[in-house]
Amino acid sequence: MKILIADDSRVMRQIVTRTLRQAGFDGHDLVEAQDGKQAFDMVQSEKPDLVISDWNMPEMTGVECLRQLRANGNNVRFGFVTSECTPEMMQQAEAAGAEFFIIKPFTAERFDEVFSPILG
């Protein structure tokens, strides 16, 4: 399975990658985007099976990326790993079609809980 990790922090992308491995999700093809616009473009070119996105990113936020993907008919599985979490953000994410919302700091156990049904 191909997974796109979108976060403007290279360190956070590495932490997400490491946590996926700690949760037992080795062997997936991981690609990275540095902002929401690049994530949008990479969904078109790389055709990932899953997008794990930060909320706040330059160029285009994560939820803007998700909304634009859905507006273009793309139904890639998409969710958020973010440090901010308000009820409004969760409602926006759900309304846009997000499948999960993980709040930083996170654990391998939380990744296992969220990603086991998706990644098997």
Automatic annotation (TrEMBL):
Any one biological process term the GO annotation gives: phosphorelay signal transduction system
Gene3D superfamilies per record: 3.40.50.2300
This protein's UniProt keywords: Phosphoprotein
Modified residues (4-aspartylphosphate): 54
Record Pfam families: Response_reg
InterPro entries found in the cross-reference section: CheY-like_superfamily, Sig_transdc_resp-reg_receiver, ST_Response_Regulator
Response regulatory domain mapped to chain residues: 2-119
Name of the featured protein: Two-component system chemotaxis response regulator CheY
Organism: Catenuloplanes indicus
